[in-house]
Amino acid sequence: MTERVRVAVIGGGPAGLTAAAALAPSVAGDVLVLERETETGGIPRHSDHPGYGMRDLRRFMSGPEYARRLTRSAREAGALLETEAMVTGWAGPRTLEVTSPRGRRLVEADAVVLATGARERPRPARFIAGDRPDGVYTTGQLQNLVHLHHREVGRRAVIVGAELVSWSAVLTLHEAGCRTVLMTSEYDKPEAYTAFRVPGRLAFSVLVRARTRVVAIHGKGRVTSVDIENLDTGQRHRVPCDTVITTGDWIPDHELARSGGLDLDEGTRGPRVDTSLATSVPGVFAAGNLLHPVDTADVAALDGRHVAAAVLGHLAGEPAPGGGGVPLVAEAPLRWVAPQLVRPGGPPPSRGKLLLWSDAFRTLPRVTATQDGRVLGRTRLPWPAAPGRVFRVPFSLVAGADPAGGPVRLTLA
Amino acid sequence: MITYDVAVIGGGIVGSAIARLLGGADLSVALLEARGDVGDGTSKANTAILHTGFDAKPGTLESRLVARGYHLLGEYAAATGIPVERTGALLVAWSQEQLDALPGLRDKAARNSYTACEIVDAAEVYRRVPALGAGALGGLTVPGESVICTWTTNLALATDAVNRGVRLLRHHRVTAVHQDADVTRLTTTAGEVTARWVVNAAGLGADRLDALFGHDRFTVTPRRGELLVYDKLARPLAPCIVLPVPSSAGKGVLVSPTIYGNVMVGPTAEDLTDRTATGTSETGLAFLREKAATLMPALTKEEVTATYAGLRASIGRDDYLIDLDAGQRYLLVGGIRSTGLTAGMAIAEHVAELLGGHLDLARRAGLPAPPRMPNLGEAFTRPYQDAAAIAADPEYGRVVCFCERVTRGELRDALASPVPPADLEGLRRRTRAMNGRCQGFYCGARVREIFEGEKE
Ligand SMILES: Cc1cc2nc3c(=O)[nH]c(=O)nc-3n(C[C@H](O)[C@H](O)[C@H](O)COP(=O)(O)OP(=O)(O)OC[C@H]3O[C@@H](n4cnc5c(N)ncnc54)[C@H](O)[C@@H]3O)c2cc1C
Ligand SMILES: Cc1cc2nc3c(=O)[nH]c(=O)nc-3n(C[C@H](O)[C@H](O)[C@H](O)COP(=O)(O)OP(=O)(O)OC[C@H]3O[C@@H](n4cnc5c(N)ncnc54)[C@H](O)[C@@H]3O)c2cc1C
User: Which CDD domains match (chain B) (predicted)?
Assistant: First the structure.
């Protein structure tokens, strides 16, 4: 059974819902959002604390409220939202295999928007040795357990990572009656420490150990302790705890991007896109944290708004951008840049910004763009660049690139 | 209290296969397992290869039973739906010395009655496995080596046993043994069990149980094997099993596809003393990462989705130790170290032969058909892909675990099966739920809720 739609959006998180809301009023035909969970909204559904909606809705609200709001907007705009519908693969360049309780079917679309988000690396991917007891979770699973399923967690938690999301874990644990006894970070400065601001700030202090790694987890049925190591001195000791949360260390949910044969970026590990958010496959676009693991939800949502123009152009029969364009390359300690391709005549990126991820801390970062040895631009930012969160530079930095020249290199000083 | 004709101790693959076979005769049989689930010991954590036995020590009992088990389990898998992928293996030589050893290995295979091996040159090695690291000099093909699902194998055997009337007693750890004139009384953590005959298939615990029968003939040394499992997106890199040339240290580190569509690297081999040390070690993981990087450099760019360790029951000799003590009405099955998944059904057959002189093992009429097991194999149709199954029962279209595409219907079926899981780990082994790359980020909470909801 094959169903035809104008646009299929894969993933009903902030990016997908916002893309659908932007597209539905202008598209003659169906804009179908396929979401595998029982509710649309993506990660904010279970991220039950304020901090959502600033840049896109100019409001400050909780994750679940934000998820409901974006869902309503998409629906009111005329998009079709289908939940418990998982896209499991491709049957053609823009034909999707979909499983839902309503059946197994193919959905053929004129345009596809991938908005499948990103997830945190779980414990095995971090090579933490030891036993495999209960009580080891990612933040995502923790918040699912606590906010959606009202589960108990333990009493004493160690948090691996000190990114923005790690503090979200602290809040959730606190709410569940679990004390965070330690946060570890492998960087010299805790990633989000200086940058973390929530209204009312945290009324409790958490010990953060920089340059520290959790090397092993102990416990037969339930976690009983972890071993930590100071990366500089090699000194180790054991920290009793009953819960371990592995936070951050994001990886895009890129399975469909890979199985669809899209070009991937080595840095983000998501699909390579140009400033219009077109991927390497004509008619296939991408938005949200799949492209930049991870930025805040409002930025993901604004990608969704941004991608609409290119999708509409494609539906109107504008030719696919084809080859060409100047690649952007992030040089260490920058890990990645998004988007990665500037095409002649292409639009500026979403919000006129390039997103960057740094593996090193810089108090007053300076970013320089060079092409074929020529400096295209330099910018100095008034706030720090820190591992564990995106920082943004104006697109004007690279706008003067020679379309016929070599790759533009971005360096951080 | 009932006195069983036979009590089989140990619900691993070996004990389950024995119980199943004895359950086919007109006998009352109990299967005692210390843990809350069958298949929760070494049988759950191995490399899951259906071995041809090409590299066994010729002339040993192991050589004979592995070869026989290969066929028995292959046939049983076809009948029950245990997934098997006939990938074949390629043994790769990385040095001149190893290259020189290949003809000897081929001859040894022939002495194990396996004649399908062929020596191939380096070009052919890379044609078969293009992602292999640099430096391979040649190889030996072993077309019969296959990958199988060890979890389903154990569960099928235990389910079949239960369907045949075997009494499965979980949470029954045998702690003491009293032998009377014609019955043996087993003290367990859940009360006493009496039986006329006892079969010891206790894996890592077999020597201690043997001591309870008054013997002092072997010691089990747990030999840890650690493994890395790479993301399913890496699967195209490993079209077949890549074996090293075996050395005195053991079979060595292999790269293998798994039946679930992943790529596995391991195992290590390290003798320990603690028989519960199924955790992984820093050195083991670091060693395997390095191995992976040389054997298949492209793996370094892929995600690891699981790490685990299993303990081989090594007994310091090169063969199985299977021995009947008719006076004690006691049979020991010991030292089933690194081939027991494959050999399990043949071991059961051998055990039946030994017992045949004392018990009437004629097959009883009207045996139930072997169970049809849910398919966990990636290469075969799974419920989420099956339009007809979903149309008949929408629960097979309700995907709960996204990474492994496990549906609500499969979770429900596992929880309602004749040998239901005791915990989330057991549910994972029966369905693959939470076994994927996110390790529960998305579905962990929901799976737990379903598990607890259905158990009530
Ligand atoms: C613990 C935590 C706390 C956070 N706190 C904040 C905060 O305070 N403020 C803030 O702005 N941001 C916060 N974030 C980040 C924010 O949640 C993300 O930026 C945002 O959710 C990204 O949106 P997205 O649409 O790209 O992806 P997601 O929200 O991940 O949505 C992707 C959706 O796609 C669906 N999907 C994936 N694959 C398929 C498929 N094959 N078929 C069908 N559906 C599919 C998924 O089920 C999911 O619903 C937090 C994140 C976490 C984990
Ligand atoms: C790393 C590794 C890789 C391997 N790879 C392969 C392979 O690729 N192919 C292959 O064919 N084989 C392989 N093997 C070997 C295979 O896994 C084993 O030979 C097989 O699982 C042994 O099964 P078993 O039933 O004897 O032991 P187990 O599965 O350990 O079962 C023994 C059971 O007895 C129970 N028990 C112990 N003491 C008592 C007591 N006192 N009372 C009650 N119950 C008790 C235990 O709880 C346990 O469940 C591998 C092994 C390892 C460790």
Answer: GlpA-like_Fer2_BFD-like
CATH architecture of the domain A122-248 equals 3-Layer(bba) Sandwich (3.50)
The answer, for B305 touching chain A at a CB cutoff of 8 Å, is yes
Q: Which of A97-111, A375-389, B67-81, B403-417 is predicted least confidently?
A: A375-389
Q: Which CATH class is domain B1-85+147-219+316-377?
A: alpha beta
Alpha-carbon distance values, B346 to B68, B143, B339, B399 (Å): 6, 21, 11, 38
In tens, the pLDDT along B85-125 reads 999 999 999 999 999 999 999 999 999 999 999 999 999 99
The rounded distance, in Å, linking the Cα atoms of A212 and A332 is: 22
A250 confidence band (pLDDT: 50, 70, 90): very high
Domain locations along chain B: 1-85+147-219+316-377, 89-143+221-314, 383-455
Which candidate from A129, A144, A251 shows the least CB-CB separation from B280?
Answer: A129
Mutate to test the pocket of ligand 1, among A47, A96, A104, A163 (most ligand atoms within 8 A of CB): A47
pLDDT for the residue B419: 98
- Chain-centroid distance of CA A172 in Å reads 20
Q: How far is CA B273 from CA B173, B216, B221, B270, B454, in A?
A: 20, 18, 6, 10, 39
Q: Tell if the pTM clears 0.90, that is, is over it.
A: yes
Tell whether domain B89-143+221-314 is in CATH 3.40.50.300.
no
Considering only CB atoms, which chain B residues are within 8 Å of A218?
Answer: 279
Model confidence at A197: pLDDT above 50:
no
Residues in A 231-260 with any Cβ partner in B closer than 8 A? 251, 255, 258
CA-closest residue to ligand 2 atom 15: B338
Q: How far apart, in whole angstroms, are the C-alpha atoms of residue A299 and residue A278?
A: 17
Cα(A117) to ligand 1 centroid in Å equals: 5
Asked if the A1-120+249-320 domain carries CATH number 3.50.50.60, the reply is yes
pLDDT at B251 over 90: no
Task: Give A239 to chain B, closest Cα distance, Å.
Answer: 18
- B209-244 tens-digit pLDDT: 999 999 999 999 999 999 999 999 999 999 999 999
Average pLDDT over residues A92-106: 98
Interface confidence, given as ipTM, is 0.94
Residue B304: list chain A partners with CB under 8 A: 124-125, 127
Report the nearest-CA residue for atom 12 of ligand 2.
Answer: B339
Sign for the CA dihedral angle at A59, A62, A65, A67 comes to positive
C-alpha distance from A109 to closest chain B C-alpha (Å) = 20
Average pLDDT, chain A: 93
Q: How many C-beta neighbours within 10 Å does residue A102 have?
A: 15
B236-B241-B245-B250 Cα dihedral, nearest 10 degrees: 120
B-facing residues of A in 313-372 (CB < 8 A) are none
Percent of chain A with pLDDT over 70: 96
What would the two tokens of residue A399 be? Answer: 């706008």
pLDDT reported for residue B442: 86
Indicate if the pLDDT at residue B73 is higher than 90.
Answer: yes
A256 chain-B contacts, CB cut-off 8 A: none
pLDDT band at A201 (very low <50, low <70, confident <90, very high): very low
* Fold of the CATH domain A324-413: Immunoglobulin-like (2.60.40)
Residue whose tokens read 């429900």:
B412
Using an 8 Å CB-CB cutoff, list chain B residues near A213: none
Same fold, A1-120+249-320 and A324-413: no
Per the rule left: phi > 0, alpha: psi between -120 and 50, beta: everything else, B264 is: beta
Interface subset of B 390-419, CB within 8 angstroms of A: 390-391, 394-395, 397-399, 402, 405
Contact flag A86-B304 (C-beta cutoff 8 Å): no
